[in-house]
Design a protein that fits this description.
Layout lengths: L1 E9 L4 H9 L4 E6 L6 E7 L4 H5 L10 E8 L6 H8 L5
Antiparallel strand pairs: 1-3, 1-4, 2-3
Length: 92
């Protein structure tokens, strides 16, 4: 699976509506309202890179109230469980 992190700038008075609409887009796993340079961050997972074209510019960017999107592709996933297992040397 391909994971993309999509940073979304939205019209200030439409942030909750934009978040709701983006959360309803197929392949969007989570949407977060955040502090910082963007208003929302969406996590998208798709089977192939080509599918990103339909999801991000084809759907997310067209949601009313979306001003701009920036997309970052994930190379590798790390979770706390994975890191703990990597450093576990078997001592109890």
């Amino acid at each position: 699976m391909i994971t993309a992190i999509v940073m979304i700038d939205a019209e200030v008075d439409q942030i909750p509506e934009v978040a709701d609409a983006v959360a309803g887009v197929s392949s969007v796993r989570q949407v977060y309202s955040v502090t910082g340079d963007v208003d929302l961050i969406a996590l998208v997972t798709v089977p192939q890179h080509e599918d990103l074209a339909q999801v991000i510019p084809g759907n997310i960017a067209k949601v009313p109230g979306v001003k701009n999107v920036k997309t970052y592709l994930a190379f590798q996933e790390f979770s706390k469980a994975d890191l703990e297992a990597a450093f576990d040397i078997g001592l109890d």
